[in-house]
Design a protein that fits this description.
With about 210 residues, this protein is of the alpha+beta class. The chain is built from five helices and nine strands. The radius of gyration is 17 Å and the shape is globular. It has one domain. Strands 1, 2, 3, 4, 5, 6, 7, 8 and 9 form a nine-stranded antiparallel sheet that branches. The two termini are about 20 Å apart. A hairpin with a 7-residue loop joins strand 2 and strand 3. InterPro entries: Anti-sigma-K/W_factor, RskA_C. Keywords: Membrane, Transmembrane, Transmembrane helix. It comes from Thermomicrobium roseum. One of its GO terms (biological process) is regulation of translation.
Length: about 210
């Protein structure tokens, strides 16, 4: 109960969701669809949150290429189908004009982490992109939670690469707009029904 109250107090300091800027949407779509892209120098001059989201999208699209060479042909085919399905979902998400951009701020041991969530109410999907997350220790994992009042619903496991980049595509059964917040916690087990500590990153969804 104490953790829930402290989490609720933190949410009071978060800004409300903002519409995804049209320019940012066009930029991200251009990075995905086959088209001419801006120079690297111009791209690196964009705002930090754009870079974070773009890095996430690129990781989502091309991460399957890092599959181990000894995977079977059937496994590789399945991965390709999953990657293609996820690619289409990300493109659809970024193309939506009623999408919301929500800031995700690190906390505690991950106070230097930062990122964003693109939420599309029409398709009930969201793309989470985070930079600067410390790598979890062996046996630990980052868990994403959807928060409604004092109820925490596990939404997925957030993988982190060696550079601290993390990304997760959400498509829950329940409407995302019925939740108050999204939280990320560091857990010692995947079989947890509620967080065991304060969130290392938090965003308000209302």
């Amino acid at each position: 109960a104490t953790e829930v109250r402290r989490t609720a107090q933190l949410l009071a300091f978060f800004p409300p969701p903002q519409p995804v800027p049209a320019r940012a949407r066009r930029t991200l779509l251009a990075r995905i669809r086959p088209a001419s892209s801006p120079s690297l120098v111009a791209w690196l001059r964009r705002p930090a949150w754009v870079l974070a989201i773009a890095a996430s999208v690129l990781a989502l699209l091309f991460g399957w290429q890092l599959a181990e060479r000894d995977r079977t042909a059937d496994q590789q085919t399945l991965q390709a189908l999953q990657a293609d399905s996820q690619r289409r979902a990300v493109i659809q998400l970024l193309a939506q004009r009623d999408g919301l951009l929500i800031r995700l701020q690190g906390n505690g041991a991950a106070r230097n982490a930062h990122g964003a969530i693109i939420l599309d109410p029409s398709s009930n999907t969201a793309l989470i992109a985070v930079e600067g997350l410390p790598r979890p220790a062996t046996g630990q994992s980052y868990i994403v939670w959807l928060v409604r009042g004092q109820e925490y619903q596990q939404a997925g496991i957030l993988p982190v690469d060696e550079r601290g980049h993390a990304e997760l595509f959400l498509s829950p059964r329940e409407s995302l707009r019925t939740f108050d917040a999204l939280a990320i916690t560091l857990e010692n087990s995947l079989q947890v029904s509620s967080p065991n500590g304060l969130p290392v990153a938090l965003a308000s969804l209302d």
